[in-house]
Amino acid sequence: MKNPYLLTQAKIEKIISETSEIKTFVLKPKESLLFATGQFIELTVPGVGEAPFTPSSSPYEVNKIEVTIMRAGFVTEKLHQMKEDEVVGIRGPYGKGYPIDKFYNKEVLILGGGVGLAPLRSFLLTLLHEVDKFKRIILCYGAKTPQDIVYKEFFPEWKKLSGLEILRSVDKANKNWKEYEGVVTILLDEVKVNTKESVAVVCGPPIMMKFGTKKLLELGHQPKNIYLSMERNMSCGIGKCGHCALGKYYVCKDGPVFTYDQIKDVSEIWV
Ligand SMILES: Cc1cc2nc3c(=O)[nH]c(=O)nc-3n(C[C@H](O)[C@H](O)[C@H](O)COP(=O)(O)OP(=O)(O)OC[C@H]3O[C@@H](n4cnc5c(N)ncnc54)[C@H](O)[C@@H]3O)c2cc1C
Ligand code: FES
Description:
Helices cover 18% and strands 31% of the residues.
């Protein structure tokens, strides 16, 4: 049996500065690491430590893997100081991703905030790979300011795609901003979704996940059709240490993707 803690070396091929706090790292693993969209990997900075991240690239890209990382503490700070051609370790993938086949023939509403667009970008690229299989794909994305928007270079391309509707908001606009101003949940009032034939997929900071889910429920989305990508402090990543408990679940093993129906009764769900 393969040792689940075994690391693969991965060269940092390219670093893209998304915002002052967020960078995308394009990694070239020595051995290709296949993942399903929504699963996560553990990334090690040699001599420093490791942390979990969800790939932001398409699972159909087998020769590289991208992770979009916000500076949050010790490991992420060191990662932000790393340069192209340096080497990190990766292990995984772990957990359960999005059950894409359950989304076929449905309207797929994606709701993302801040760096929460990272797993959602991988998810979106996966949907776009077989775009005809979905009734509609709608991306609602919010950031604090126009400068805080990630994947700025991709939005112009995505906006040209038929089959994908995009709405963006910022909490605080500047004079060049021509889209919505306000918290991301205001976008949900703008899109008319048939909640009988839809799924909603949400990722972002806990406060945004909380109010996003509340709003989706008010609009008639069913708890079983709201998919949340959950985060908890992790250690082993494989269901052994108990660090990532969420009610009766372990986020690393049973998630990180859960339906709201599965976890709605967990106290402190949004911490
Ligand atoms: C499944 C999963 C996928 C993730 N995907 C991404 C991603 O794609 N991009 C990204 O930028 N981040 C992602 N994260 C969050 C990322 O793992 C943390 O930001 C990282 O572990 C922080 O490590 P650090 O050593 O830099 O910070 P630390 O020095 O460990 O901590 C800094 C602060 O953040 C808190 N913290 C640490 N980990 C978490 C966590 N998981 N949730 C909430 N608070 C935490 C600590 O308690 C502390 O207050 C993901 C987390 C999980 C569990
Ligand atoms: S991180 Fe160890 S059980 Fe989930």
